[in-house]
């Protein structure tokens, strides 16, 4: 233990620990899990020792930025703690951030509603009542107040829609319940009327249509939607080379009302593949064809590269909190979603080494895509049909 140690129920708040101190926790057998709030791999990182001992380990970096501590990390931190058995060590450099996370978590779990904090300021009040270090640091106190307000928001409106016309494509509708602004991800031409009807039934105002990449197995519904709803803007990665109203770059955020998705570049299936990440509803990653449930997109056409795809998935998707849900562009076995943890541990291709992955992808022997000759040219011009 360190001089910063504080025990609160089944939680142990810790500051910087030397390897011998980490080993002491493990040897005593009084903890079952560990949540690290620093980037994994830093000096004296406890990850290796904790995992080797068979304890559950999670890492959700919680680091101050120029604008303060990020409120979007709140749900990821709560989800991570939900998944860990007790007793749990929460560690950072001084235990201050750990105390803020614990105050937020305890308030969240004590509230009457499953996705709300009971009242504004409750987390900060609890931190003060428990005399936690976070209550004495203005930036963390501000973070607790902001999180309390933000988490009182209603859950994101979310619908997963399936293409019944043959491509087994998933289209995703995301809406902000306050403003009713919405986005649509990966629409299919044949299903446009269905998609718009769902949005209308929910009283949503479609703002943007996003594609995860230039698809080869279906023609996007983007162009048809723009003809029916001229106010809607199309979006795609600049690296795709396809036409769109707005080109997206890695790290940008697509905002709709008070919500947003973050753009992460995940090339390898095609040069322009991106994953859209939402912090809402416990965390969601819309991975397109880069990562499928227990699989991935093929790499034998459209600038495909096994090595690039392997690196993309591991650096941009597997680096997300393990509780985040994975929503792919396709599934052919009736599955609806996975999680980052499931794919990191169970994906039969991406759990291999890069060399093994390349060998698998180079020898799939898949047939030429049926619609590629029609789909790709159409999708390069936003799916607009003459």
From TrEMBL:
BP GO annotations: glutathione metabolic process; hydrogen sulfide metabolic process
Cofactor(s), names only, from the UniProt record: Fe(2+)
Coarse class of the protein's main subcellular location: mitochondrion
SUPFAM superfamilies: Metallo-hydrolase/oxidoreductase (SSF56281)
One Pfam family recorded for the sequence: Lactamase_B
EC annotation from Swiss-Prot or TrEMBL: 1.13.11.18
Subcellular location: Mitochondrion
Protein name: persulfide dioxygenase
């Amino acid at each position: 233990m360190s001089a910063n140690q504080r025990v609160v129920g089944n939680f142990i708040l810790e500051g910087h620990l030397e390897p011998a101190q980490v080993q002491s926790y493990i040897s005593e057998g009084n903890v079952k899990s560990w949540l690290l709030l620093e980037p994994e791999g830093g000096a004296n990182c406890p990850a290796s020792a904790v995992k080797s001992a068979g304890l559950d380990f999670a890492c959700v970096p919680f680091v101050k930025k120029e604008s303060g501590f990020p409120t979007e990390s709140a749900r990821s931190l709560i989800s991570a703690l939900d998944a860990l058995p007790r007793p749990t060590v929460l560690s950072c450099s001084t235990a201050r951030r750990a105390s803020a996370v614990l105050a937020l978590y305890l308030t969240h779990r004590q509230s009457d509603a499953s996705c709300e904090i009971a009242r504004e300021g409750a987390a900060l009040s609890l931190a003060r009542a428990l005399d936690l270090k976070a209550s004495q640091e203005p930036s963390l106190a501000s973070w607790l107040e902001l999180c309390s307000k933000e988490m009182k928001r209603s859950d994101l409106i979310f619908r997963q829609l399936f293409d019944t016309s043959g491509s087994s494509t998933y289209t995703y509708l995301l809406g902000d319940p306050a403003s009713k602004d919405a986005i649509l991800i990966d629409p299919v031409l044949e299903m446009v009327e269905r998609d718009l009807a769902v949005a209308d039934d929910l009283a949503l105002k479609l703002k943007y249509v996003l594609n995860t990449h230039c698809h080869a197995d279906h023609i996007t519904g983007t162009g048809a939607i723009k003809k029916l709803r001229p106010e809607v803007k199309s979006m795609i990665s600049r690296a795709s080379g396809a036409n769109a109203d707005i080109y997206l770059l890695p790290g940008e955020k697509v905002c709709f009302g008070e919500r947003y998705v973050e753009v992460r570049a995940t090339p390898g299936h095609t040069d322009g593949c991106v994953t859209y990440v939402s912090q809402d509803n416990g965390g969601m990653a819309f991975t397109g064809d880069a990562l499928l449930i227990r699989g991935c997109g093929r790499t034998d056409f459209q600038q495909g590269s096994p090595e690039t795809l392997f690196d993309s998935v591991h650096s941009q998707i597997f680096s997300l909190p393990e509780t985040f849900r994975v929503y792919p562009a396709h599934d052919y076995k009736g599955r609806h979603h996975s999680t980052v943890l499931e794919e990191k541990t169970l994906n039969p291709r991406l759990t291999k080494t890069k060399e093994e992955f390349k060998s698998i992808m180079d020898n799939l022997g898949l047939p030429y895509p049926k619609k590629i000759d029609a789909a790709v040219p159409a999708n390069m011009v936003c799916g607009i049909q003459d």
